[in-house]
Amino acid sequence: MSPNKQYKNGMSKFSSKPPEHEAARLRENQRRHRARVKGRITELETALAVTEEKLDGALRLIEELKAEVQRLQRPQCGPGFSQERGHGRDCPGEPEAHRPEDGLHQVDIIRDDTAENRPLPSSGIEKEGIKDVSNDCAFLPPPQPGESTMTCREAFSIIKERIMPEFDLDQAREWLKPGFRRATCPGTGCRVQTHILFSFSSRASPHFTVTKQQNQSKPHDRRPTNQLPTHPNYPTQPAAMSTPYNPLGHISIGVRDYDVSKAFYTAVFATIGLHLVYDSEAVVPKNPKKIRTLGFGPDEQHELINIFEFGDDAAPPGAGFHLAFNAPTRASVVEFHAVAVGFGGTNNGLPGVRKHYGDDYFAAFVVDPDGWRLEVVCKTPVALGG
C-alpha cells in the first residue's frame, strides 16, 4: 500500500481528525489572535489618552507660567517714569558713564500720587528729584552670576511702604551701600543685593525712634536712643532705628541626602536673597559619624534654616505643617517656584493671587525632594513694586 494512499473522506492512515476539524481549529486560533490584538490596541489607546491628558496639562502649565513671567516682566511704570527692561534681557549699547558722586543719589522710587510730591520724611529731598531711572551707576561693580538683585527703585519702595513708612532716604542708602550694583540694562537704574535689603529689614523697626517733629525742630540732631548692630559689610551704622526682639531664632529640618538638599536649597533660596552661610563639610573634618549640616540665611549672623542629614530616619511632619518665606516681588515668587520644580521639587500650587488670603497675597507652593512643604509669598501690591 502506498504511504500516501487516501482513505474515505480524505483521511490517511496517519490522520486522527477529519480536515474540517483542522479548518475549524485554524479559524478559532485566528479569532483568538484578533481578540488579543484588539485588547492590546484598547490598552494602548487608553494609555495614550492618559498620557495625552497629562501632556496637555503640562503644556497648559508651561503656558500659564510663561504668561505669568511675561506679565511680571512687563514694565509697571507710573506717570513720568521710563520703561524698565527686565533683568537679564538683551540690552543694546553700553551703559552711559556717570559721575561717581552722582551715582547713589539718583535712584527711582515708585510715585505716590497721594503724597502730592511732598518731601520724603526726614530726607529733605523732593520726590521729583530722585525718580530718574536713567542713572545706571556704571562705576559700580556689576551683579555676579547667580546673585539675586533688584532695582534700587524697588528696594526703596519696599523700605518706604513696608519696613519704615517714615524712612530716611540717606540712612537707608548708607545701609544698602555695600550691596549697590550697576544697571544690567542701560536706563534701568542701579540695583541692590536682595540679601542686604532683607538684612536691613530684619533689623529695622516699623518707625524711627526719632519722630518727625523732632526731625523738624532739630534737623541735624539724629542721636539714636537705640542703635543697630554693625553691618558685617559696612562698619558705619545708620542713624537711629530701634532693634525689635525677634523670638524666633531658626528652624531645623531633617533630610535624607545632604548633596540633593544642598543643591536644591542653594538654588531655591537664592531667588529670595538667602544664601548658604554654614556648611559642616567646609569647616569640620570629614567624619562619617558626624551629621552633615547646612545653614541658610541673609548673612552669617542671621542663620534662619538649619538642614541636617539623617538618611532614612528623616521624615517631614504630616498635614498642616509648612514653611513659608517672604519674597520681595511677584517675579521672585515665580522664580522660586520654577527653580524648585527644576531642582527636584514638586508643584503644590502655581504662582498666583490667593484672594481668600487677600487681594495682594501672591503665593506659590512646592514640596521639596524630602516631602517638606514650602510656600513663598509676596504681599506687596503691584502698584508698590510687588
UniProtKB/TrEMBL annotation:
Residues 247-379 form the VOC domain. SUPFAM superfamilies: Glyoxalase/Bleomycin resistance protein/Dihydroxybiphenyl dioxygenase. InterPro entries: Glyas_Bleomycin-R_OHBP_Dase, Glyas_Fos-R_dOase_dom, VOC_core. PROSITE patterns: VOC. Residues 18-29, 84-105 have a biased composition (Basic and acidic residues). The keyword Nucleotidyltransferase does not apply. Keywords: Dioxygenase, Oxidoreductase. The keyword Zinc-finger does not apply. Pfam families: Glyoxalase. Residues 1-15, 208-217, 225-239 have a biased composition (Polar residues). Residues 1-38, 75-105, 208-239 are annotated as: Disordered. One of its GO terms (molecular function) is dioxygenase activity. This is Glyoxalase/Bleomycin resistance protein/Dihydroxybiphenyl dioxygenase.
